[in-house]
């Protein structure tokens, strides 16, 4: 190759390595660049430490709030039950009462209690005459009978309740078993 070929070759100035001379410009520029990188590094480490501390504080605060929520979650429910307790206390303090008055007082308290349960989203599970459903009913006894369709609830021994779509307590029932087929 001739010398003219090298002179016409385009030079990539941005990617060209500096010549190996020991001028004061390159030596003095490197320490300032290193100091700049060190200060950036210190800044990033400081930011990281602050973020870690903030996250740790957030986690601790979140745990504390969850614990407080668990401790006081029943507050509103209990406030709604207190009037029923007051009614029971008043009923116990009455000295002489007729059986009719006692019954009407107990019915009033029962209605008051069911109203609170309804406001809280609790509803009774319908059992009598319904097909037996093991997710809603707990069979206590199978009764041989032809009066009720097979595998239907004959009667309810203890009422079941659900909170929205979750069963709180299954209804205790007796279930029909047809002997003739």
What does this structure look like?
The protein is α+β, with helices and mostly antiparallel strands. The chain has a domain at 123-181: Roll (Nucleotide Exchange Factor Grpe, Chain A, domain 2). Helices cover 52% and strands 17% of the residues. The protein has four helices and six strands, in the order ααααββββββ. The strands form two sheets. Strands 1-4-5 form a three-stranded antiparallel beta sheet. Strand 4 and strand 5 form a beta hairpin. Helix 3 (75-93) packs antiparallel against helix 4 (99-119). The mean pLDDT is 86.
Name some characteristics of this structure.
single chain; 3-stranded mixed beta sheet; Nucleotide Exchange Factor Grpe, Chain A, domain 2; 6 strands; elongated; 4 helices; 3-stranded antiparallel beta sheet; 181 residues; alpha+beta
């Amino acid at each position: 190759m001739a010398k003219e070929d090298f002179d016409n070759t385009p030079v990539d100035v941005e990617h060209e390595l500096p010549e190996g001379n020991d001028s004061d410009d390159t030596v003095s520029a490197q320490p300032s660049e290193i100091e700049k990188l060190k200060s950036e590094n210190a800044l990033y480490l400081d930011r990281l430490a602050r973020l870690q501390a903030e996250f740790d504080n957030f986690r601790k605060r979140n745990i504390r709030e969850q614990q407080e929520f668990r401790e006081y979650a029943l507050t509103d429910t209990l406030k709604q039950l207190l009037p029923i307790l007051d009614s029971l206390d008043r009923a116990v303090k009455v000295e002489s009462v007729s059986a009719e008055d006692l019954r009407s007082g107990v019915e009033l308290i029962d209605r008051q209690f069911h109203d609170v349960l309804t406001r809280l989203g609790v509803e009774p599970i319908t059992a009598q005459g319904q097909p037996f459903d093991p997710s809603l009913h707990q069979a206590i006894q199978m009764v041989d009978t032809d009066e009720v369709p097979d595998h239907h609830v004959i009667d309810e021994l203890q009422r079941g309740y659900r909170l929205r779509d979750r069963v709180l307590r299954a209804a205790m029932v007796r279930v029909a078993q047809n002997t003739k087929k």
